[in-house]
């Protein structure tokens, strides 16, 4: 019997935002330390975890369907352990056991540290019974009791599940106190709590020591970050300055921003700190003041316009992206046209556009009927997507003939698919593959090169584009920070 036979096999499926990707990475790292190995087959796994999202109904349906399919797998393999973690676990709790009685445990977003114990207890129990580790609801205690029941889970990790070995997420805050009327996040992720700057700085140093070059600071409203340590108040601009000089870190970005907290000190920090990417994701959500007010976003279209002017005036060539919701309660055709106008006015680099999905327990569900029919939502969604694509393509074409600096991430998606199709690479086939990376303004760039370039910074000349991608060829590769050398494409 080999060592491998002693290992537990873990299958994990993650949906939702970058916060969920990070949570999965951390849970997997903890389980690896307990001897688990990852498998991509739920049939082979003895432990199955779903890291879930509740932001839209569709994401929840997908998880309930996946759980439904597992009913029979579990019937034939009663020793399998099945757990649901993340936003649905916190929001639905016992409902998950009622809809999928073969689930052994649920662990909310603030209880991830409990997962190894929950798995262990399930496995060793003589008779299976559902286990639950969840945090308090937003009305179930004092502010400090509720906050205390949501733990930020940031143990030391191992690099295996990162987007790439040289890119990592770092959580700087958890929760949200904005309570936009359509949104479940304040319930599923609890009160807004910022992590101490010294802890964050330490984590960034550890990651840099492991070879990470690019970090993405995460928070639901990341620019609302505030923490007082040793008598000093740290805002996001101070935190950026504090971690900026970490040796080995070359790029820093942060998502997602809240428009009202986009203060001048932060814009100046992005302008002045060379490692800060020239990119801001600041969701507008809607272009009509009446809708913004029903959403309780806390700003007007004019406030957002003013913020965009400040961004453009302070940070030259900064790209800005947004989220929009179409078909929110009471959205008229006129109101929708105002969102279209906002897209035209601000020419976002890209926008994520969502059809409104009514969520249980939100203020919008209690106060406003979900009165825009689905086909209208779909049509408005498509209109916004078409317009955004046209804008993105036009603005990307401005890059043609110029050069961009790209952190090379590895083979592009299409190259990866092609490699999977070519099980046997053709003898004598050149080593060049289509590689992908991102520019300093967060645009996806593809070009041919040797996969060994992954993790290095390359200068790429752009000669074509689509709405989502700049297409170019490599000019130089940076060998050490600050110096460049010419490198043949196929080296
Ligand atoms: N319906 C549709 N989209 C939503 N979002 C948040 N809640 C909802 C909802 N109930 C969108 C917002 C947010 C993004 C992460 O998801 O645009 O910025
Ligand atoms: Fe949800 Fe609004 Fe908080 Fe964003 S700011 S997570 S949309 S409540």
Q: In angstroms, what is the radius of gyration?
A: 23 Å
What portion of residues is helical?
A: 25-40%
Task: Please name the CATH topology of the largest domain.
Answer: Rossmann fold
Spatial order of the strands in the main sheet? 2-1-3-4-5-6
> Quick check: average pLDDT?
92
Question: Mind describing the biggest β-sheet?
Answer: 6 strands, parallel
CATH architecture of the largest domain: 3-Layer(aba) Sandwich
User: Could you tell me how far the N terminus lies from the C terminus, measured between alpha carbons in angstroms?
Assistant: 43 Å
Give the percentage of residues in beta strands.
15-25%
By DSSP, the count of extended strands is 22
Count the helices. How many?
17
**Helix/strand-derived class?**
alpha/beta
Unreliable spans are 1-5, 479-491
Shape: globular
CATH superfamily of the largest domain: Methylthiotransferase, N-terminal domain
- Say which molecules are bound, naming each kind only once: 5'-deoxyadenosine, iron/sulfur cluster
* Tally of structural domains: 4
CATH class of the largest domain: Alpha Beta
